[in-house]
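User: Can you recover a sequence for this backbone? Please restate the input before giving your answer.

Assistant: Of course. Working from this structure:
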């Protein structure tokens, strides 16, 4: 992992971006983040965000876009991606009503990915913990999705924290999908039995082992994220400080 491969998922900073998206971009650039992953545009829009990123020299490495928006507003979503200079879309979450039939969802992902690929955009799927729960018939949703999507079309954004919460070894998961892992989400797991996230390096996950595993699996971006940060700006600053130290070691 190089320092210029470290990004931040702006969902972590949603309270800040809702009030000052462009100012928040300037703050994360000052922290040393080389890239951001978008989850909407806060109180701004794609054109202003793209212009600000170019001015700051920060890349938009990916954007989280809901499946129904990608399918139902394809041209609009594509225009937003182009405005921010982004060639990687990520389906971040599946609503409950879609989780019972991973084969059907996989078919939708394949079709969508083919459309995006024709426009020069890659598609990936981001996990939480629910994908690893047993389904009727024995196969998990994760198994259904990964077995029935075309690896040449649909990449994976593996959230190592959520895999660990689900009782799946993050290291084993990375090895199982080597060559298909486009990005990884990095948030630590706080000590104790609660499913609480923490800044990278402040919890129990073995990052000195997991980062090389992610590299070997093909990850191009290492994306800091917390769903429930205690102090969002301070937490992402702490995470990049730890990761830059790890990269230099």
């Amino acid at each position: 992992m190089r320092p210029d491969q470290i990004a931040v998922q702006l969902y972590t900073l949603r309270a800040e971006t809702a009030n000052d998206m462009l100012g928040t971009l300037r703050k994360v650039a000052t922290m040393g983040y080389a890239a951001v992953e978008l989850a909407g545009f806060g109180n701004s829009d794609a054109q202003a965000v793209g212009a600000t990123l170019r001015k700051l020299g920060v890349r938009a490495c990916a954007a989280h876009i809901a499946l129904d928006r990608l399918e139902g507003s394809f041209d609009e979503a594509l225009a937003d991606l182009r405005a921010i200079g982004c060639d990687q879309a990520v389906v971040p979450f599946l609503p409950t009503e879609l989780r019972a039939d991973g084969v059907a969802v996989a078919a939708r992902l394949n079709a969508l990915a083919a459309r995006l690929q024709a426009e020069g955009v890659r598609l990936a799927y981001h996990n939480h913990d629910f994908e690893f729960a047993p389904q009727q018939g024995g196969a998990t949703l994760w198994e259904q999705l990964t077995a029935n999507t075309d690896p040449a079309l649909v990449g994976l954004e593996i959230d190592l924290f959520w895999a660990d919460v689900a009782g799946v070894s993050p290291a084993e998961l990375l090895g199982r999908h080597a060559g298909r892992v486009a990005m990884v989400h990095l948030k630590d797991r706080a000590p104790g039995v609660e499913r609480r996230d923490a800044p990278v390096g402040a919890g129990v996950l073995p990052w000195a082992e997991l980062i090389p595993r992610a590299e070997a699996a093909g990850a191009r971006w290492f994306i800091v994220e917390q769903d429930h940060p205690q102090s969002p700006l301070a937490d992402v600053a702490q995470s990049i400080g730890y990761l830059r130290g790890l990269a230099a070691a």
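That completes the design. The domain at 3-248 is CATH 3.20.20.150 (TIM Barrel).
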